[in-house]
Amino acid sequence: MPDNEVDLYHSSYGNYELDVYRRVRLATYGEDLGQTSWVTNDESREIPLLLQLTPESSVLEIGCGSGRYALHVADAVGCRVLGMDVVAPAIDTANQLSRARNMGSRVSFQQGDVSRQLPFAEQAFEAVFANDVRRRVGRSQHAAHLRASGTFAAHQVAVRTSLR
Question: Which of 30, 95, 134, 156 is most buried, taking the most CB atoms under 10 A from its CB?
């Protein structure tokens, strides 16, 4: 990481349980789904609808972070969700939250770099989604993992700190 870059993710997920982070999430979003993204609450509610998720759906979340949103989706819809993130403390937190909620039969988390080939069978998922992942993640990159009628959704916001 360059000297001028701030790593918010390792520190945020590594200290996820601290009350100050919970208060920031509540003050910023009005509810605590473990958010660290630009996705609004309304957009978060729309994702399962856009993906047409059902209790029979198998879903891959790319860049799952703390896993709170994957747990929320699985709980609300009744579907199975696999969350992936490159940040180890995020996956540790996600697995702890999943165990604490006894959701391990429907929600699991794996550390991995989604810009590389994924270790899943072809057509393993009805839906794949990504919110604000830093690396470019295109649908074509994960199309083989989607079932023929599957849906891919991505939300990305670009922020420039300089106009040069």
Answer: 95
